Amino acid sequence: MNHSYFTPHENAVSITITGSGGSGAVTAGLVLLESVARAGLYGLMGRSVGPQIRGGESAAMVRFSSQPVDCPGDRFDLLVALDWRNVLRFVDEIPLDERSLIIADPAAGDAPEALTQSGAQLLTLPIKEIASGVKGGRINMVALGAVGAVCALPPDAMTESAAHTLAPKGDAVVAAATECILKGYDSVAEGRSFAAAPRPERARARWNISGNEASGLGALRGGVRFVAAYPITPATEILEWLAPRLEQLDGTLLQAEDELASVNMIIGASFGGVPALTTTSGPGLSLMMEGLGLAVASEIPAVVVNVMRGGPSTGIPTKSEQADLNIAIYGFHGDAPHLVLAPLSITDCIATTQWGVGLAERLQTVAIVLTDQSLGQARAVIDPPEMPLFTLSRQLADQPTDPYLRYRVTAEAVSPVTAPGTADGIYTGDGLEHNERGAPSSIAADHLAQLEKRQRKLEGFDYGKRWAEIEGEGDICLLTWGSSAGVVFEAANRLRAQGQTVRVLAVRLLAPLRTQILREAIGTAQRVLVVEQNHQAQFFHYLNAQQALPPSAESYARPGPLPIRPGEIVDLVQQGGDV
Amino acid sequence: MSTAQDRKNLKPKDYKSEIKPIWCPGCGHFSVLSAITKALAHLGLAKEQVALISGIGCSSRIPAYVDTYGFHGVHGRALAVASGLKAARPDLTVLTAGGDGDGFSIGGNHFLHACRRNMDLTYIAMDNEVYGMTKGQASPTTAPDWSHSKLTPHGTGIRRFQPAAIALASGASFIARGFSGDPSGLARLVVEAIQHPGFSFVHVLSPCPTFRPEQRAWKQQVHPCDLETTDNPIDAAHAIQSDDGRSLGIFYIESLPVWRSEKAAQRSLSRIEQEFLV
Amino acid sequence: MNEREQAMSAQVLEFLAHAQALETESGERYRELSETLEIHNNPEAAALFQKLAHYGESRAEEVVQQTGGMALPELPPWECQWLSAEGPHRCMEEAHYLMTPYQALRLVLRNESCSCNLYRRSLRDAVDLGVKKIASEMIREKEKHLEWLYSCIEREAETHHPPQEDLDPPNAPE
């Protein structure tokens, strides 16, 4: 991949729209994101919500730029409050400063001091009054129009996006939204738009996709045609996206009674020769571990996309954290070599999930793909991704040996496998240790041969360059994994703009770790900083256990729920070695 | 692929693998194995089109002993593996086998939901009212006053799990009970269970000579079920609930909607990807 | 229709199908016992059952040969009354891993006597002369076999001691 992750974002704009009880903040955010795409720009939308199922407070956070956006910014340029109810819930998540602008309706009351003390300027607009002047008018669309004016987005882009997003609600709703957007746009006086806002460009074909949809798409691109489903926040949308599409691709989605069932269902389907996947989040992954060990031992390809959330236990289900690395790597009992991968961005959820499926199939093992809430439940405007040409598929024993040795120790340690229906390939898959034929065996030599085979097939495989994204050269090496990559790439670019020489190493293949290549990539960097979003520095300790880090390496590990922001990393590096 | 004629000539012993059972001499499971191979031979099923799935326990060793595709998974999850396999490969005949601990204790939830889901699966539960593989503890179907386990020296004191009644309440569409001491009769139940479209539950009384030698008396205790097979769940409930747990036969067969993978108008993946275009 | 085919009446074929099922079942159960006793490290009883398995299997073969190439009627196991609850599988149920050849022979004697009684009943009840003829041939053969079993039992009885109690506890293999 030659996609450069980040360029400086002086021209990026961050906006949040907050509101409660059906005010439509999230819908406004979705329309805004699409408007950005129609204006030829890139964008990223995250959201934050209260615990209520309906009627709670929510915040849509959109950052857009003329360059791809893969992380939140340090601060917000604009806060649009549809009302002030419970907005304090989001104060920590919405850093404002004296350059920020707050748009609010005086009819909704005074802005809370917690927000105004930032020094942000206040622009009052009669949002409710404007909306009530339109038949069926809604305040969120008026506010959206105002955002468009402040950000100098073309009105057409906004009304077209609203028409597209709201089309299922009917013509009357679309007409009202259009009128509200235009009136909101006009309500902002000339000269109030941001000087630094990225200028609209000629519209290009772009995709608007969430991380969870991207993971689902990666699964389909990888050939997955069976999915077992048990709902859990924040992974459910993958399953919801896949369900109707599997029906269109002659595949199957089966809702399970629990995660113990879902992981065993994919083992059954995969034993049947059909590439299979399930998705979950932390608590579900804990339940699946025994089944995944079975897949490792019986050498049945199986893929789990684990969308991480704050843990342990029920933790913070709606917020992001990179805290499931330990269970993904160490959660198995016994010696159970397997794959752990982590997409580095929403776009990368497609290719990395596809890669995970391909590797699991090719190597007849388990792949755990670690995304998180910040990727899964965020949406991005991206360039249409290419279809990587993997040639990774299950090696079939079309003409099995007689007798068929299901677990034959081959040169590359992968044993060609049959699927039921193959006449001469009958075997019994087993989680009991077995000999090459598959017959249960507790003989030391069989155990050793099979342990070595299962390890060697992973260790000896050529994973190519995809194991990590490496950018830049320099004395400072920022080492990270998964969703933290976006923020680290942006921080590195800012540091470079300040004259620092920085190398970024964002690891995608976490297990088996490419330790030797990683050491070489770190090279002689004077300062190595390991960045991740969890409390126990799981990645840092893992790298140390693998002896991948120089002794002077430092850890920057911070738990959720607040996202790591690029400025934090820049500050850390500038502070020198005293982290 | 074997031809239909080849298959017709397959004998029960042709469905046995070269791996020899580790079961204790005298174990009822030998006769269950015999009944399964008789049923497969009678139906003339191609070996490669059959998959036998199990969990953990003495009886769960059975897939290795049958010369069909097999999968010996983890404790309690056989029905989940079988459900995934059947959903992905509806062309296969999928059998599930296991014991009372595997199916009704650790796998209890899957049992309920496999009954509800009514996939076209056959589930043969070999019940000896004891955990044999771990040296004889009480299982869900053990009588409350059985005090021969070190774990429950005063007996469990809790009511027995009623497999047939639970299956009925959970929506199984075929419920039968057989006895390893009558392998021919059991073969007939397995044949009918396989032929039944939907989830077929065959509860098999299969004595454990090692930990429950008193079960040799089952031979004198079993008797045919008083009532004819019914499709009325109320009658079936009455028959099952008033039964002493030793009656044999098919209690219940009903034609219920069978789970199947829904298909929509087919689209290519590249067409699906167009959805993301702005 | 020649004499041979005439002799192969439907009743004869049905009788032969039953006999074949019975002898096959005996052979297979003995084979299974031989294998399981071998696994349980009881070579003496295992060897005995192997010998008997061979006997059962050859008996089943001989029955088939009597048809002179005519196909036996398909007989699902549950329609074969001779494979009822008292059929040869009973040997399986009463086996024990420590069983002595003497005990094994007693088990086999009972099974083979049951088989012989089934043939005797056919001889008594059959109307078809062909059935009577074949049944009496099979009884003769079975009686010879029973005599041999008796002699084996007598020989074993001289040195027979009931197996000693296994003082080792059972294993927990999984």
Description:
- The complex is a heterotrimer of chains A (579), B (278) and C (174).
- Helices cover 35% and strands 18% of the residues of chain A.
- Chain A is an alpha/beta fold and 579 residues long.
- Chain A folds into three domains: 13-204, Pyruvate-ferredoxin oxidoreductase, PFOR, domain III (Pyruvate-ferredoxin Oxidoreductase, domain 3); 209-382, Thiamin diphosphate (ThDP)-binding fold, Pyr/PP domains (Rossmann fold), CATH 3.40.50; 464-574, Rossmann fold (3-Layer(aba) Sandwich), CATH 3.40.50.920.
- An eight-stranded mixed beta sheet of chain A has the order 6-5-4-1-3-2-14-7. A seven-stranded mixed beta sheet of chain A has the order 9-8-10-11-13-12-19, with helices on both faces.
- In chain A, helix 12 links the parallel strand 12 (339-341) and strand 13 (366-372).
- In chain A, helix 7 runs parallel beside helix 8 and helix 15 crosses helix 18 (566-574).
- The longest helix of chain A is centred in the middle third of the chain and has 18 residues, at 346-363.
- The radius of gyration of chain A is 25 Å and the shape is globular.
- Chain B has 278 residues and is of the alpha/beta class.
- Chain B has a single domain (19-276), classed as Rossmann fold (3-Layer(aba) Sandwich), CATH 3.40.50.
- Chain B is built from ten helices and eight strands.
- The longest helix of chain B has 15 residues, at 29-43.
- The longest helix of chain C is centred in the last third of the chain and has 31 residues, at 129-159.
- Chain C is mainly alpha-helical.
- In chain C, helix 2 (10-39) runs antiparallel to helix 5, helix 3 (43-65) runs parallel beside helix 5 (101-125) and helix 5 (101-125) runs antiparallel to helix 6 (129-159).
- The chains are: A alpha/beta (579), B alpha/beta (278), C mainly alpha (174).
- Strand 15 of chain A pairs parallel with strand 2 (69-72) of chain B, so a sheet runs across the interface.
